[in-house]
Write a structure and sequence with these properties.
The chain has about 300 residues and is an alpha+beta fold. The chain has ten helices and eleven strands. It has two domains: about 160 residues, Ribosomal Protein S5, domain 2; about 130 residues, GHMP kinase, C-terminal domain (Alpha-Beta Plaits). A hairpin with a 4-residue loop joins strand 5 and strand 6. The longest helix is centred in the C-terminal third of the chain and has 20 residues.
Length: about 300
């Protein structure tokens, strides 16, 4: 039986989709994330006591909040006789394409898991995280949740989390312009007709990319890290995107695209030094478009959520 009555957990931000893996592929970003404090309470319910660090009002009503909904699903599935009270500290900008809703959800589950008499594995927490994420995005998408739970690059389907090996020296650069792009608006841009050749090309690119990661082959990753389905439809929503992507590629990126639903942009590099050298040029591209920005350089093989 757990003797702990309180636990605190951190979940890092993430790059959802990684361009070619819409809704199924993601990797973590080191250095920025959300923190959740969870307390075990006698009442069989879930309460959100506070949300700090958010620039807009987020729901304190548990069923309407990603973290609250995930814990409700956990409680009901395990038929727990006790409940949870949580406090959320937002460190990820809202509407940034950095997995902010998923991070609160994962941090809440990892913290609450510490208070269980028999804690679950990260894989066992995944279905509850999917329930929470659906509150924010309207669907059960695991591309942000998977890497947050396991760390690194993860292929996340409805029922499986598959860790994809990546050489430790490979790094990503994530640049977030000071703009908000709501996930639902970004998803609405994807409505319409698609040609079968686009699906074939995207499938080929995803296969090349995953094979390149598996074998540490930069040329396969370079050949595969190109999104022909989603990026062309969402790029017009992001002022400065084309110039920012060009700055990534000119700086030696293996590929670059939109992080999650945007407006953040990411690129993959063979070394940290390359990513750091490219950073000011990408930020300048957004500055020329009228936006200040924040940037993070992170190993792709970075750790996932952890108990503090």
């Amino acid at each position: 039986m757990s003797s702990r009555q309180e636990a605190k957990a951190f979940s890092p931000a993430s790059v959802g989709n990684v361009g070619i893996g819409f809704d199924i592929l993601g990797h973590v970003i080191e250095g920025v994330g959300d923190i959740v404090i969870a307390r075990r309470i006698d009442e069989p319910t879930v309460r959100i006591a506070a949300i700090r660090g958010a620039t807009v009002d987020l729901p304190l009503d548990a069923p309407s909040n990603t973290a609250g909904a995930a814990l409700i699903a956990l409680r009901e599935a395990l038929q727990l006789p006790f409940g949870f009270e949580i406090e959320i500290e937002k460190g990820i900008p809202l509407g940034s394409g950095m997995g902010g809703s998923a991070a609160s959800c994962v941090a809440a589950l990892v913290a609450a898991n510490e208070l269980l008499d028999v804690p679950l594995s990260r894989e066992e927490l995944y279905p509850f995280a999917l329930v929470g994420e659906a509150v924010a995005s309207g669907g059960k998408h695991g591309d942000n949740l998977g890497p947050m739970l396991l760390g690194g690059l993860v292929l996340a389907t409805a029922e499986h989390l598959v860790k994809v090996p990546v050489p430790r020296e490979w790094h990503s650069l994530l640049v977030h312009p000071d703009a908000i792009l709501e996930t639902r608006r970004a998803r609405a841009a994807l409505q319409g007709a698609y040609a079968i050749r686009e699906f074939v090309q995207q499938s080929a690119n995803l296969a090349l990319f995953l094979a390149g990661c598996q074998h540490g082959d930069v040329e396969l990753v370079r050949a595969g890290l190109s999104d022909v389905l989603v990026e062309p439809r969402r790029a017009p929503l992001i002022v400065g995107f084309d110039a920012a992507k060009r700055a990534m590629l000119d700086g030696g990126a293996l590929g670059a695209s939109i992080s999650g639903a945007g407006p953040s942009v990411f690129g993959w590099f063979e070394t940290r030094a390359q990513a750091e050298t490219a950073t000011p040029k990408v930020q300048q591209a957004f500055r020329d478009a009228g936006f200040d920005s924040q940037a993070w350089v992170s190993p792709i093989e970075a750790p996932g959520a952890r108990v503090l």
